[in-house]
Here is the input.
Amino acid sequence: MDTTHDGEGVRPIERWFAHYSADHRNAANQRIHVVAVPAILWSVVALLWCLPPGPFFRSGAWAALAMFGAWLFYQRASRPLGLGMLAVFIAMAAATAWLHRTLGTPGLLALGAAVFVVAWIAQFVGHSRWFEARKPSFLTDLRYLLIGPAWVLAKLYRRLGWRY
Here is the structure.
């Protein structure tokens, strides 16, 4: 079964992006998302990194498991985006491991929580009546929490002239 295109020749990722873009038309809100979405993604990685790994795993095991699951979603949606998100996840894991060694678990937990809160506030400001005046996409379907990072990466791909 071909999962890359539907019967009309449109890839599912294109439909996801079209709907997500419809909720993000305001230029200021788009700029907010280009910063806040990766910040939220990193903060989730950092917060998961702080969970106790258990007796047979190392720090970051829960974050690695979550990143792998998300990567599978991206890889299935688009191989070029899957490769890009793999690079993003590797960079985030390396940065988070360094921060964990530098700050310790309490410091990383505090930083991850602060970034999470500030980035989500920015997201909701972007969707407020002063900018977008549309509700965030994830309120209609939680899968849009995964689409946001791919949408930001796809914007970078388009700017570089790359296909996704």
